[in-house]
Each structure stands twice: as C-alpha cells, then as structure tokens.
Amino acid sequence: ASIADTLWAENQDLVSQFLNNDFINFCGRGSDEVCLPLYRKYYVQDYFYLVDYVKYKAHRLITIPTGELSALRNEADSVSRDAKYTITANEPYVKDLHGRAEDLAKGNRSIAELAYGNVFQNAASYENWYNLHVISIPCIYGWTRLTQQLMNNPSTRNAFLNANEAVWKNGIDTGTPGRVGEWTSLFRTAMRLEIALFVSAFEK
C-alpha cells in the first residue's frame, strides 16, 4: 500500500470527520443561491493555501542534496507549473462560482489558513523533502476520496462536483518512504487543518 493509503487507513477518527464535514455535505445538496456564497468564502482560503503551497515548494528546493541536479530541475519545473495554476485560480472563481476576481486579492486569511501557512513554513526548514507529500495527502488524496463519496450519493448535485473537477483530478506522490509512523503526526496535523478550513466557511 502507498503511504497515503496507509495513513488514511490508520487514522479513521480524523478521516471520518473529514469525509462527513458539514460544509461539503451541505453544499453538495443545497441550492446555488445558498451554497455559492459559502463556497466562494472557502475558495478564497483555498487560494491562500495554493500561494503558501507554491512558496513552500520553492523554499524546499534548498533541501535537495548537492549533486542531484536532475531532481532539482524537476522540482523547479513543478514549482513553475503550480505557480501558473495559482495565477489562474481566479478563472473558476469567477466563471463557476460567480465571484469577483478582486475578492482573491483583497480577502483575509482565516485563522485556520494562517495555521496551515505556519505548518508549511515550519516544514520548509526540515531536511526531508517528503514532508510536502505528507502534508498534501489530506488536500489532494483526501479530496479525491471525498468526491468519490459525493458521487456515490444520489442527493449530490452535479453542478457542485463540476465546479471542483480540476482540483479533484490531481494526483499525489505515492512513493513509500521509511516507516509510516514517522509521518503520522504531520498527516494528522494537516487533516485537522483541512477540517478547520471547512468549519471556517460557516464563520461570520
């Protein structure tokens, strides 16, 4: 099993909270009139997450061992692709969620997103480059599991899934490093932060 599969299976207490969060279940079934404002609020925080993600990956380049220029080139290319994706994040926000592009520039970070950004900054100083993949499991792998659950529920509106199709098509590195136990704490921290981002969408 991959590291993502194993961590997912061994932390079902947080997995259950993640998959059954009120925000996604509400938006997956509710009307656009009620749900789009909530999802726009969540999307702004997700945009800030993407910015932090790109900055973290760029900072992480210095941890690649000396002499591994091929790995450095590949990682630098990855940073460039993610930066381009983040720059165009306003397109689905405006087209699919009927938001205003300036909302992303003028929005404020929630406490949950600030905490997420702090985790990225701290992890960037670690020597082990694999931390990024562990932190990303809830966001990428987890959302894939979440959309599978939504698609299997007949009460889920297709419009909600379509608005997130690009995000849910992402994959995740499934290499298996060392011992899973080394990554459990980081995985659980990222899971708690993902759940907190869902909760923040309902905050006034």
Instruction: Note the total helix count.
Output: 12
SSE class = mainly alpha
Mean pLDDT value: 82
Strand tally, please?
0
What portion of residues is helical? over 70%
Shape: globular
Strand/helix succession:
HHHHHHHHHHHH
> How far apart are the first and last residues' alpha carbons, in Å?
41 Å
Describe the largest sheet.
none
As a whole number of angstroms, the C-alpha radius of gyration is 17 Å
Percent of sequence in beta strands: under 5%
Unreliable stretches (pLDDT < 50, length at least 5) are: 167-177
Keywords summarizing the entry:
mainly alpha; 0% strand
Give your account of this protein's structure.
This protein has 204 residues and is mainly alpha-helical. 71% of the residues lie in helices and 0% in strands. The chain is built from 12 helices and no strands. It has helices spanning 3-10, 12-19, 22-29, 32-60, 69-87, 90-95, 101-106, 111-123, 131-151, 158-162, 165-168, 184-200. α2 packs parallel to α12 and α4 runs antiparallel to α5. The longest helix has 29 residues, at 32-60. The radius of gyration is 17 Å and the shape is globular. It starts with a helix and ends with a helix.
